[in-house]
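Format notes (please read before filing issues)

Several people have asked whether sequences and structure tokens are stored in separate files. They are not. Every record keeps both together, in the order shown below: the sequence lines, then the token lines. Line labels are part of the format and must not be stripped during preprocessing.
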Amino acid sequence: MNEDLREHIITLLNSDKRLDGRKPLEYRKPLNIEYGFTKTADGSAKVILGETEVLVGIKMEIGEPYPDRQDEGTIIVGAELIPLSNPNFESGPPGIQAVELARVVDRGIRESSTLDFKKLCIKKGEDIWRVAIDIVTLNDAGNLFDASALGAYAALQNTVFPKFEDGKIIRKEKTTKKLPLKNVPVSVTVCKIGSKFIVDPTSEEEKVIDARLTVASIEDGTLCALQKGGEYALTEEEIAQMLEIGIEKGNELRGALKNG
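Then the structure lines:
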């Protein structure tokens, strides 16, 4: 850890400032979501959060149900941290960071019940729809968790079912049928540096955080999922503060999504 950088950031935070001039609980701008970024996917979205850019694509697949969920479809989330987006990323199989990113996005969607998995069942015990969600980093300037989660939900909103006939998917033909969505899950990653809390960390700030908590919630403030990161423990009081921040800022991020 760069101690000089850490001390400089803490000094700024003590004056309610950050390296880029933002307030501690302020998200970067612009915050833009482009729907249908790629026409080859069944659904897609590109998120721009400051200088961070993430692309999420969705492919609808046919599969067999899990033995204990014979009448439910499912989701599969994968993340690719390409070297083009950050010189520290390496080619090859997903590393720890990519696995954690995919897991955080998966849990936020799954635990929010935004997708009605029973409506993704084609024939009980035989065929179900699998929603494959692929996250690709275009530029990592910090806070991939929140950008990716936002992009995943936006891509779900953009998804339409491909034509399914005689047990086969006809990729070239799209229907007008949308995914059965309810609730709007949004993730907010709250970071602790020293005694201060911030949201939407830049790459430089991520180098010096003590702990982070990614808070996934829906519109009414219901908590869906949590993911703790960082080397240091958090007290009950700190967790309560971070939850409050996460739920409040979630409403702010939700405003960037399409209605319905």
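For reference, the curators noted about this record: The chain has one domain: 3-254. Residues 215 and 226 are 5 Å apart (CA to CA).
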